[in-house]
TrEMBL record:
It comes from the Bacteria. Belongs to the short-chain fatty acyl-CoA assimilation regulator (ScfR) family. InterPro entries: Cro/C1-type_HTH, HTH_RamB, IrrE_HExxH, Lambda_DNA-bd_dom_sf, ScfR_C. Pfam families: HTH_3, Peptidase_M78, ScfRs. SUPFAM superfamilies: lambda repressor-like DNA-binding domains (SSF47413). This is Short-chain fatty acyl-CoA regulator family protein. Transmembrane segments: none annotated. Residues 14-68 form the HTH cro/C1-type domain. Coiled coil: none annotated. It comes from Sphingomonas oryzagri.
């Protein structure tokens, strides 16, 4: 006979969670779908957590509740619930109580189901990597150093704890004001800052022999601050960056040097936007990017990028994806803490709103998008222009996109005016035409790989073929 489940009393943890989020009992009870009196009894350990309430906490506050209960059964239950809720499965997921019984009575089977789901996710990622290699004409083992570094950050979950924690300490210690970074470089490291009037000046150039840092005077204040933070990170976090590089074992000298630059850039963002302060303010402002960038004196792109890195295990932020595309549609940056993964080498779905945003600078566009397997995302995109400072140099035009899964939309201010309930309100999108199964898409550029084509010479539609 299976033993009865052990009651889980977690009143202190639930109460502490509510305190950290600065929520009233009424607000939390509404989010969990329970009564205020029931929540009060849970917080005073008058009633244990049921499987339904435990899963509701994980669903409503995934960034904060995850990791609070270290019980193996609770972790397995959360993993099983995530796997059972996979949008690709046609049937609705089982009730929480049924999942809890499965974990209690058949733990080996539950673990196997969770492992199979994880293996399927890895296979999907591998399929995308092969599709990317096809786009570039390179074999799967012949990636360029730039691609190696991007994949390293992707595999690291776009969070590097050793560097992020050390950078946060620097950022928290900085004096307020626009000159704090320059003053720290001057006072602690005897570095002189110069901004020449020449049009050919690089964005940043450091002369270590004479301790002179030269910055392009045409840069916006936010870009200038980022270059100063980058230089500060290269000096004060050299040991931490070196430790990460030693563990990374990149395949070439070029990739190692590129990763070194990438880690310093990562640290620069963490200095300008210290983890806990930025995470707390992002939650308070419901991830309003314009308000965030004014609060931390950063650019729109920098704030979006930082939101995608808030993956500290015990203090996770809302899971976001972030990407940047140029005028030709090439994805030049991509990071995702969600299930969505972008094509690595361009070829992004043309139905993504970010392609429209490139042509409409300084205006935020919103979109409810749905992947082929049914997962929905709320996304924003904004076209940006970086001035060159000279008529002789073309400005840089691109767009950035930020989004989260629909379950996080309540914490994303840009979702407030979207209809998230209508089944036909979402734009059907995909990762790449070659791995997208949608049959009726008129924006398709290539047929899907491995599908037999049906071509009728007597019939012409927008897409000149169908497939099985």
């Amino acid at each position: 006979m299976p033993r009865a489940p052990r009651p889980l009393y977690a009143g202190t943890r639930v109460r502490e969670l509510r305190g950290r989020l600065r929520m009233s009992q009424v607000a939390m009870a509404e989010r969990l779908g329970i009564s205020v009196s029931y929540l009060s009894q849970i917080e005073t350990d008058g009633r244990p957590l049921t499987a339904a309430v435990s899963l509701a906490l994980a669903a409503a506050f995934p960034a904060d509740w995850s990791g609070i209960d270290e019980d193996e059964g609770a972790r397995l239950l959360a993993g099983l619930a995530e796997a059972a809720a996979e949008a690709l499965l046609p049937e609705p997921p089982p009730e929480p109580e049924m999942l809890a019984r499965a974990v209690e009575q058949q733990p080996a089977l539950a673990r196997r189901f969770v492992a199979m789901h994880a293996a399927w996710r890895r296979a999907e990622d591998q399929l995308q990597r092969l599709d990317d290699a096809y786009d570039t004409g390179a074999p799967s083992g012949g990636r360029l150093p730039w691609d190696e570094v991007r994949d390293w950050f992707h595999d690291a979950g776009n969070y590097v704890d050793l560097i992020d924690t050390a950078a946060e300490a620097i950022g928290d210690a900085l004096e307020p004001g626009p000159d704090a970074l320059a003053e720290r470089l001057r006072d602690r490291h005897r570095i002189t800052l110069r901004t020449p009037g020449t049009e050919s000046a690089p964005l940043r150039a450091f002369d270590p022999a004479h301790r002179i840092l030269t910055l392009d005077p045409a840069q916006a204040p936010e870009s200038r601050a980022f270059q100063l933070a980058h230089q500060l990170a290269r000096i004060e976090l050299a040991e931490e960056i070196g430790q990460v590089l030693a563990r990374a074992t990149m395949p070439s000298v070029e990739a190692t040097r590129l990763l070194s630059i990438g880690l310093a850039n990562y640290a620069a963002g963490a200095i300008l936007m210290p983890y806990e302060a930025f995470r707390a303010e992002a939650r308070r402002l419901r991830h309003d990017i314009d308000r965030l960038r004014r609060r931390f004196a950063v650019s729109f792109e920098q704030a979006c990028h930082r939101l995608s890195t808030l993956q500290r295990p015990d203090q996770r932020g809302t899971p976001f994806f972030f990407c940047r595309v140029d005028m030709a549609g090439n994805i030049t940056k991509r990071h995702s803490a969600t299930r969505l993964q972008f094509a690595r080498f361009g070829g992004a779905c043309p139905l993504w709103i970010m392609h429209e945003a490139v042509a409409i600078p300084d205006r935020i566009l919103t979109q409810l998008a749905e992947m082929p397997e049914g997962t929905r995302y709320v996304a924003i995109a904004k076209g940006l222009v970086k001035e060159s400072g000279s008529y002789a140099r073309s400005p840089r035009r691109y767009a950035v996109a930020l989004g989260c899964e629909i379950g996080e939309a309540k914490d994303f201010v840009y979702a407030d005016h979207l209809d998230l309930t209508r089944t036909d309100a979402a734009t059907p999108i995909g990762v790449s035409c070659r791995i997208c199964p949608r049959e009726g898409c008129e924006q398709r550029a290539f047929p899907p790989s491995g599908r037999a084509l049906r071509i009728d010479p007597e019939r012409r539609e927008v897409v000149p073929y169908r497939f099985d």
